[in-house]
């Protein structure tokens, strides 16, 4: 009997490569496909007005009939935050652990549901899309993180999700290293592995070490303690709660994300909130500063977050005082370093003592460093290897680690978003590329904000805005009243009469030239923009956005 032909497996990487966030991978075989994770990322500083960024889902639409399920590794927003947009394209079951599904359900609008929520348990095997699928327990900064092993006809494809090897995890559930070794002994065709800390030597610290630091800082704090952390870092949130209770303080939760995460995790049995520990904003004045802890968001300098408002003195009920301790319990995401540094400086100027540096010990990463990545590579011994979840430099370091532990260099694929890797038992290559550009979410707008709009927003923030209103006769084509000019964010008009007079003369010349040329109103607007723009550049060396309004009477 001849062996069945190996049609191979196609892995499409739609997000999480060359960046931190919006993780999404599609695995296809025969006439079936599954999606692993569907996350978003927060916008960089050069994307003004954008709320979040999700992967390009055009390829999902193209193969919608093949997609049988969405498999979730864990409940962080960079892995579940784009689910609602995926479910608008495909109606399929979502598989995940109890907590992961609870958090996923929380991010979905009530009107948008998957075909089913399918709760799984780490360590068990399931038939999904006709193949054996297992979820292997890993340790991360949130409970119930899992790797996913797909037992495909071509071989095992293993996706690690986000992980680190924490020997003293907060929840007492260590990473299932023996199972990874067993998979390696069976033979893993391909491993896709978290690269976020691949450029960091040594081992990542245990989450339990942060608890010791919190205890030490809380004991010596003379006044209020303000802790900023990621809203979905459940282990960190729990340690803050536990330390607050132990020190006899009261806790204010500041930020919808933190409140919602704790509510979901508590309801599902993954969080312990002592009764009467939490107070509301109206109760703050009833307690002395040394009796209070405030837990908030804003570790990345997000403009509307609690910590940023506190640093800018715009928070409605929290103003920094001299004895305040502020703990920023997270590392800056690449690209956010400048804005985070600015937040720290503002807090220091207001008189707070700020703990944020690595040596302060208020944060440990949830991602494996080099020695842990070596251990994983050594256990799994994949034939093919794809470093994912990280910037290019981190993927590059991960490739080097794989080569050091014996993975053949030609079997390591350093990919970009959109790359499709075709693998069989005997061959592997990057076959082609699909569209994988970033999609911007702006309010209810999905993907409508393009480069041109973003350039205009950047220009507005840099050079300001000017409106020019002019009334012209429909018959004589002459100006009937002096042009009216208004400016926002460009010049202080009361002190810029010379510039404004020059701009008005440019408008008047534009109308004369327009009349002589016998042109349309749109042509007149274009003339005004050009001539006034030239005058303003000459007088101010700036290029504001100019909006002409022409009224014909």
Task: Describe this entry's structure for a reader.
This protein is an alpha/beta fold and 553 residues long. Helix content is 31%, strand content 24%. Helix 4 (98-107) packs across helix 8, helix 6 packs parallel to helix 7 and helix 14 (497-517) runs antiparallel to helix 15 (521-540). It is globular. The model has no long low-confidence stretch (mean pLDDT 90).
Quick one: biggest sheet?
8 strands, mixed
Radius of gyration: 28 Å
- Poorly predicted runs: none
The gross shape turns out to be: globular
- Kindly report the spatial arrangement of strands forming the biggest sheet: 7-6-5-3-2-1-20-21
State which percent range the strand residues make up: 15-25%
Helix content: 25-40%
User: From the helix content, strand content and strand pairing, which structural class follows?
Assistant: alpha/beta
Q: What separation lies between the terminal Cα atoms?
A: 89 Å
What's the overall average pLDDT, rounded? 90
Number of helices: 15
Number of strands: 26
């Amino acid at each position: 009997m001849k062996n069945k032909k190996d049609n191979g497996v196609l892995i499409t990487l739609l997000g999480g490569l060359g960046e931190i966030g919006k993780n999404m991978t599609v695995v296809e075989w025969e006439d079936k496909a599954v999606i692993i994770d569907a996350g978003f990322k927060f916008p960089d500083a050069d994307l003004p007005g954008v709320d979040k960024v999700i992967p390009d889902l055009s390829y999902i639409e193209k193969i919608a009939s093949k997609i049988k399920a969405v498999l979730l590794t864990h409940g962080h927003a960079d892995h579940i935050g784009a689910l609602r947009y995926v479910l608008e394209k495909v109606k399929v079951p979502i598989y995940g652990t109890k907590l992961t599904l609870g958090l996923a359900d929380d991010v979905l609008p009530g009107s948008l549901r998957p075909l089913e929520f399918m709760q799984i348990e780490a360590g068990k095997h399931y038939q999904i899309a006709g193949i054996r699928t297992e979820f292997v327990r890993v340790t991360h900064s949130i409970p119930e993180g899992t790797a996913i092993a797909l037992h495909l006809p071509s071989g095992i494809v293993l996706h690690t999700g986000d992980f680190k090897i924490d020997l003293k995890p907060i929840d007492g559930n260590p990473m299932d290293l023996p199972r990874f070794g067993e998979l390696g002994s069976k033979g893993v065709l391909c491993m896709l592995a978290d690269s976020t800390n691949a450029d960091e030597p040594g081992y990542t610290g245990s989450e339990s070490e942060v608890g010791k630091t919190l205890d030490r800082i809380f004991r010596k704090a003379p006044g209020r303690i303000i802790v900023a952390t990621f809203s979905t870092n459940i282990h960190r949130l729990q340690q803050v709660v536990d330390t607050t209770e132990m020190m006899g303080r009261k806790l204010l939760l500041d930020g919808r994300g933190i409140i919602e995460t704790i509510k979901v995790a508590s309801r599902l049995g993954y969080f312990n909130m002592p009764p009467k520990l939490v107070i509301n904003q109206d109760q703050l004045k009833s307690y002395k500063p040394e009796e209070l802890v405030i837990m908030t968001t804003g570790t990345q300098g997000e403009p509307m977050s609690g910590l940023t408002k506190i640093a800018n003195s715009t928070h409605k009920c929290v103003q920094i005082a001299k004895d305040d301790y502020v703990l920023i319990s997270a590392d800056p995401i690449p690209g956010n370093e400048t804005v985070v540094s600015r937040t720290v400086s503002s807090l220091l100027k207001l008189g707070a003592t700020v703990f944020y540096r690595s040596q302060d010990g208020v944060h440990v990463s949830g991602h494996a460093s080099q020695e842990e990545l070596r251990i994983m590579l050594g256990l799994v011994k994949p034939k093919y290897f794809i470093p994912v979840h990280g910037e290019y430099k981190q993927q590059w370091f991960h490739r080097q680690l794989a080569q050091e532990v014996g993975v053949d260099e030609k079997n390591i694929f350093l990919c970009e978003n959109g790359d499709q890797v075709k693998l069989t038992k005997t061959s592997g290559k990057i076959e082609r590329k699909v569209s994988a550009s970033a999609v911007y979410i702006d309010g209810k707008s999905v993907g409508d904000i393009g480069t041109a709009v973003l350039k205009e927003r950047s220009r507005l923030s840099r050079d300001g805005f000017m409106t020019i209103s002019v009334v012209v006769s429909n018959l004589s084509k002459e100006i009937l009243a002096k042009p009216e000019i208004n400016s926002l964010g460009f010049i202080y008009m009361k002190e810029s009469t010379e510039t404004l007079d020059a701009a008005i003369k440019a408008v008047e010349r534009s109308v004369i030239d327009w009349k002589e040329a016998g042109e349309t109103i749109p042509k007149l607007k274009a003339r005004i923009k050009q001539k006034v723009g030239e005058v303003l550049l000459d007088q101010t060396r700036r290029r504001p956005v100019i909006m002409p309004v022409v009224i014909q009477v």
